[in-house]
Design brief:
about 425 residues; four-stranded mixed sheet; GMP Synthetase, Chain A, domain 3
Length: about 425
């Protein structure tokens, strides 16, 4: 294979991979200089000129002419006077000899290896380009097409045919995709594994929800409304705290839109995830009240040292505060950064009820504390639930729950 064929075939391959001309020339020169070093041990006194468009390659070895008896005669950049005269009869001592080296002089095997090296360098460059491209897009929404569904992940391809990965843990539990579907997700992270970029997408990240708001709410995109914090239970519920520095803008109303038009588009993309948009405030008690919406809070006690908040509600508001599966209170706690304990307000009709603290001799204190975390602070509030409800709300074992029911029922049977 001569230089022209080698360079032209490489240049065509490089152009098909969208490699720019300066990079292409640099790779060619690096590979040819590596060949020179392998044959001559150094490339310091070699000049390599490449014209990728025409397929031209010129390699010149440059050496200074010295006297045959000179001590420098064995230096890599020196040539003896008698040797130089064989190349050109009128050379004189002190002049430089430019000796052209043909590609064939490196041998067929070296040329074949150079060709393979060039292709590998382009492939490596392509991987670097892909890595850098998606590294810059981390946290941004992209659309990609599903082409293979596996047990633990979905493989997608972008518009350029690059493979992207949506792991099971980054999918909304209600997501159901088929081959050929277009999927929206954010670029979650980009890993380099064994020299290959691995692009991980996510639909469960709070950042995905934030980007969806930016797409649907111009005021968020323009920075007139700031999203302070987002907490999510993907596919179930999310709480979004927003604020505006412009008094003329209602941040909650702008995010929801006329008749919910803006937020409905976000909800549909998130498989009907319930989204509570909350007006952020630095007033902690007011912030907690808003975070526990739709429940109406009667009173609040804040323990700054323990980072705990006790919230008191009317009996019919407790279940609203806790929410289905306990998601409302969990998300409210994460949103405000405090552990929230929910308590029922006793009224005149609750005289027959018994506070759970009265059972401390029969029920371990940590168990009572676990019940209180879910808003259950009296015997009747516990007995109003089924054993299945209590198992779902707490981390208590089934045997423990049965014993609790036995002790509490015994109190009223007496």
């Amino acid at each position: 294979m001569d230089a022209k064929v080698l360079i032209e075939s490489f240049a065509e391959f490089a152009r098909s991979k969208n490699v720019d001309r300066p990079t292409m020339i640099r790779i060619l020169e690096d590979v040819f200089r590596a060949m020179i070093r392998k044959k001559f041990e150094t490339d310091e006194n070699f000049d390599v000129t490449i014209n990728a468009d025409k397929g031209d390659l010129e390699i010149f070895r440059i050496r200074e002419i010295v006297d045959d008896n000179s001590e420098d005669i064995w230096d890599f950049d020196k040539i003896s006077f008698s040797e130089a005269r064989k190349i050109e009869p009128d050379f004189e001592i002190g002049e430089e000899v430019y000796e052209k080296i043909e590609l064939e002089e490196f041998g067929r095997r070296a040329v074949q290896m150079a060709r393979q090296t060039l292709i590998q360098r382009i492939k490596d460059l392509e991987k670097d380009i892909l890595y850098n491209k998606y590294e810059e897009q981390v946290g941004e929404i992209i659309s990609a097409e599903v082409y293979q569904i596996l047990g633990r992940e979905i493989l997608l391809i972008d518009s350029e045919g690059n493979e992207l990965i949506l792991p099971k843990g980054e999918q909304i539990p209600k997501d159901r995709f088929r081959k050929g579907d277009t999927v929206k997700a954010i670029v979650h992270r980009v890993d380099m594994i064994n020299g290959n970029p691995k692009i991980i997408l996510s639909r469960t990240s709070p950042v995905f929800l934030e980007r969806l708001f930016e797409n649907e709410v111009p005021e968020v995109y323009d920075g007139l409304i700031t999203i302070v914090k987002i907490v999510r239970e993907p596919g179930e519920r999310a709480k979004v705290a927003v604020e505006s520095y412009d008094d003329r803008i209602d941040p909650v109303g702008a995010c929801v839109g006329m008749k919910g038009s803006r937020i409905h588009a976000v909800v549909r993309e998130l498989q009907n995830e319930n989204i509570d948009v909350i007006n952020y405030t630095e007033n902690l008690e007011l912030y907690v009240t808003r975070a526990l919406s739709p429940a109406k809070v009667s009173s609040i006690t804040v323990d700054q040292d323990r980072k705990r908040i006790s919230v008191f509600l009317k009996p019919d508001q407790v279940s609203l505060a806790i929410g289905k599966g306990g998601f409302n209170i969990k998300l409210a706690s994460r949103l405000v950064g405090y552990e929230i304990d929910v308590f029922r307000e006793l009224n005149e009709y609750d005289d027959e009820d018994v506070d759970l603290n009265e059972f401390v001799d029969e029920i371990d204190a940590w168990i009572i504390e676990e019940l209180k975390k879910t808003g259950l602070d009296t015997a009747k509030s516990v007995l109003a639930l089924t054993k299945e409800d209590l198992t779902r709300r707490t981390e208590l074992e089934e045997e423990t729950i049965e014993e609790i029911f036995r002790i509490l029922k015994q109190e009223f049977e007496q």
